[in-house]
Amino acid sequence: SQTIHQWPATLVQPVGSPLSLECTVEGTSNPNLYWYRQAAGRGLQLLFYSVGIGQISSEVPQNLSASRPQDRQFILSSKKLLLSDSGFYLCAWRPGLATDTQYFGPGTRLTVL
Amino acid sequence: AQKITQTQPGMFVQEKEAVTLDCTYDTSDQSYGLFWYKQPSSGEMIFLIYQGSYDEQNATEGRYSLNFQKARKSANLVISASQLGDSAMYFCAMRDTGNQFYFGTGTSLTVIP
Q1: Which regions in chain B score pLDDT beneath 70?
Q2: B43: three-class secondary structure by DSSP
Q3: How many A×B Cβ pairs under 8 Å?
């Protein structure tokens, strides 16, 4: 069966520090991968999605970036965090374009101080 | 323009009763998908149910059913025989023809014993 992992689960970082969040999927190949952010008490905002290695589409131009170095690995990064980057970051995968449903990881709660 | 609208920020239901969570969507696409996710306090997004735009019958998954009214562009979630464990945030989402995903702002459901 397929599983999706995210780490770390929680993170507290100072303003201006770098960020690296990792997401990996097991038990599948060529998944579509997504990064979302959820501000406190809000819905989900799509940040990036990827249909394959090295293919990244950005939905929201910010100080965040994403990379997909391997088929089942998706990384969210920042060189300098802002206070507004605080939130709950969720990674999701989708088996392929022929399948609609996205499945989410456990999330990373990021607090920028 | 907002793609997904959930007008009920909070709902209460008595245990064992049924509850309907409202969702309307906005799209001019012919092919799209509609989803409901549950987010308990732990934060993980749990997939509940899916309805394709060409599906003529309402989707059902156990105690969950999706009341799909295409002409009204509504996709309400019905939870029958509510349980205490159903207390959570519920998000409606849509996948459009361009494979973009949009989420509503969520409805907080509280089941009262």
Answers
A1: 1-2
A2: coil
A3: 50
